[in-house]
């Protein structure tokens, strides 16, 4: 009798401490990196990214992408696997990846498309001068543009107003 | 000789394919949930959350918190462990947790503090009428306020403009 009561109690405890699982099945928690570099510290929002860029006096890289866009996925592969890019971004940049546009028009100098990489100087100036290879989508990159992308990262590292 | 060459080649391949690891050591990838419910689908930004709220005709819960704020952590514990809250939020709400303020003043009707929970109707109306127990911080909740919080979730579920 006591044993039975104990069993019921144990079951009750087990049920009440079970974590919520959606009807559709357990989900893998979403990461902020979304596969663009799990070891980087990603800002969540543009406001947060600007805060850190100003505070740390580091340039900001804003990367617009979509998870169902093949061009984004191709660029993500080479981007995330390039240790030089990952190290430089980790050590010298504030990074943000977004799948939804912000209300700030300065982040879409020639329109809204993906993938699109916009650099922002810690003085809060969008570096519209740092562009890729395509005249109709100036801030787009393809896997073949990795070398140009790397040289653009170096350009963005040279701040507009250097500290004295 | 061939063996030695092969070894060198293997080492080179191993080095070149090694993933980037920060000098400070490997990091655990950040999640969007930040411990507030790993099974919920969190929006990343306010813009994204509004987009989903409108599209799905669901109310939005915006939760402001800080990871080094003991009040936030206490509330997070009861919030994340309550299956009723987790299920309702998962099935009937769009959810967003933020550690940095947005530029939208409507999200801080009585100031910026944490923890703070603001509900937004899919008509884009901030539900400033859904408040907690504290007159000086009307959108703050403590673990003891869980029952009130749950009834506020139910209030937010009743949309301002119901579909015909």
UniProtKB/TrEMBL annotation, chains A, B:
Signal peptide residues on this chain, from the entry's feature table: 1-18
GO cellular component labels: endoplasmic reticulum; extracellular region
InterPro entries documented for this protein: AGR/TXD, Thioredoxin-like_sf
Gene3D superfamilies, per database record: Glutaredoxin (3.40.30.10)
Entry keyword annotation includes Transport: no
Pfam families assigned: Thioredoxin_7
Superkingdom, natural source: Eukaryota
Chief location: endoplasmic reticulum
Location of this chain's protein in the cell: Endoplasmic reticulum; Secreted
Family to which this protein belongs: Belongs to the AGR family.
Protein name: Anterior gradient protein 2
Organism: Liparis tanakae
Gene that encodes the chain: agr2
């Amino acid at each position: 009798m006591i044993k039975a009561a104990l069993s019921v109690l144990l079951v009750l405890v087990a049920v009440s401490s079970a974590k919520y699982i959606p009807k559709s099945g357990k989900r893998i928690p979403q990461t902020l990196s979304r596969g663009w570099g799990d070891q980087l510290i990603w800002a969540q929002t543009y406001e947060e990214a600007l805060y850190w860029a100003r505070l740390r006096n580091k340039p900001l890289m804003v990367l617009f992408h979509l998870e169902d866009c093949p061009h984004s996925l191709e660029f993500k592969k080479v981007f995330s696997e390039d240790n030089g890019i990952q190290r430089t971004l980790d050590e010298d940049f504030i990074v943000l990846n977004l799948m939804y546009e912000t209300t700030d028009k300065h982040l879409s100098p020639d329109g809204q498309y993906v993938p699109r990489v916009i650099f922002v100087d810690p003085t809060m100036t969008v570096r519209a001068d740092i562009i890729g290879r395509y005249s109709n989508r100036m801030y787009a990159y393809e896997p073949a543009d990795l070398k140009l992308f790397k040289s653009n990262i170096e350009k963005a590292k040279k701040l507009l107003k250097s500290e004295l």
